[in-house]
Every structure is written in structure tokens, then in C-alpha cells.
């Protein structure tokens, strides 16, 4: 599966409302930790065991309203939604921490 780029607060709301399992990556272009984790996020999104999950990214500088609604305070932040409800999030994860979060909620 590909990582979808959400470019509006409406697309953020639609992604959460219209998909059973959603992982959102809140990032900024200037964020070094965001750039470091991105290849791992993209790799995990392509794994067959996660094909039933909707993966997306939101640039917090471009879509400030979505970042505010999601209460983003640190970057990168990854949030997991099940049936429209946020069930977990992680800030500034290392690759293994991100994978552990996915395995906990998405399998």
C-alpha cells in the first residue's frame, strides 16, 4: 500500500471517518527526525501484513488546522485510529518503536 498525502483538514477528517484502520504521520519538512523515520514508515506501509491499513502523512506546516485538531505538540507524531477513534500515538519514535506500535494495533 502507498502512503497517502493529505493536503487539507477535510481529507484528514475523511481518512479517519472512512477507513477502519488508519495510521497518520504528522511531520514537517524542516524536521530532521521526521526525515529519518520516513523511509521506515514507507517500508512498513508496503508490507503485506499491513495491506488492510490506510497509511497517510500530513505536513503540519501546510495543514495547520488538521494538526491543531489532532493536538500535535511534537514531531514526528504517529497516531492510530480504529473505526474513527484515536487508540494510540507515539512521538519521535525510533524505527523499532514504530514497528512495535503497528504490530500492537494493526495485526
UniProtKB/TrEMBL annotation:
The keyword Disulfide bond applies. Keywords: Disulfide bond, Redox-active center. The keyword Acetylation does not apply. The record marks 25 as: Deprotonates C-terminal active site Cys. GO terms for molecular function: protein-disulfide reductase activity. It comes from the Eukaryota. Residues 1-107 form the Thioredoxin domain. The record marks 32-33 as: Contributes to redox potential value. InterPro entries: Thioredoxin (IPR005746), Thioredoxin-like_sf (IPR036249), Thioredoxin_domain (IPR013766), Thioredoxin_H-type-like (IPR050620). Disulfide bonds join 31-34. It holds the Pfam family Thioredoxin. The active site is at residues 31, 34. Belongs to the thioredoxin family. Plant H-type subfamily. This is Thioredoxin. It comes from [Torrubiella] hemipterigena.
Amino acid at each position: 500500500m502507498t502512503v497517502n498525502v493529505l493536503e487539507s483538514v477535510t481529507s484528514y477528517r475523511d481518512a479517519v471517518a472512512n477507513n477502519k484502520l488508519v495510521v497518520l504521520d504528522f511531520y514537517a519538512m524542516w524536521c530532521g527526525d521526521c526525515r529519518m523515520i520516513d523511509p521506515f514508515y514507507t517500508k512498513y506501509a508496503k508490507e503485506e501484513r499491513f495491506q488492510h491499513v490506510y497509511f497517510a502523512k500530513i505536513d503540519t506546516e501546510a495543514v495547520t488546522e488538521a494538526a491543531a485538531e489532532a493536538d500535535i505538540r511534537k514531531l514526528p507524531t504517529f497516531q492510530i485510529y480504529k473505526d474513527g477513534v484515536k487508540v494510540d500515538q507515539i512521538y519521535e519514535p525510533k524505527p523499532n518503536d514504530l514497528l512495535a506500535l503497528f504490530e500492537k494495533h494493526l495485526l
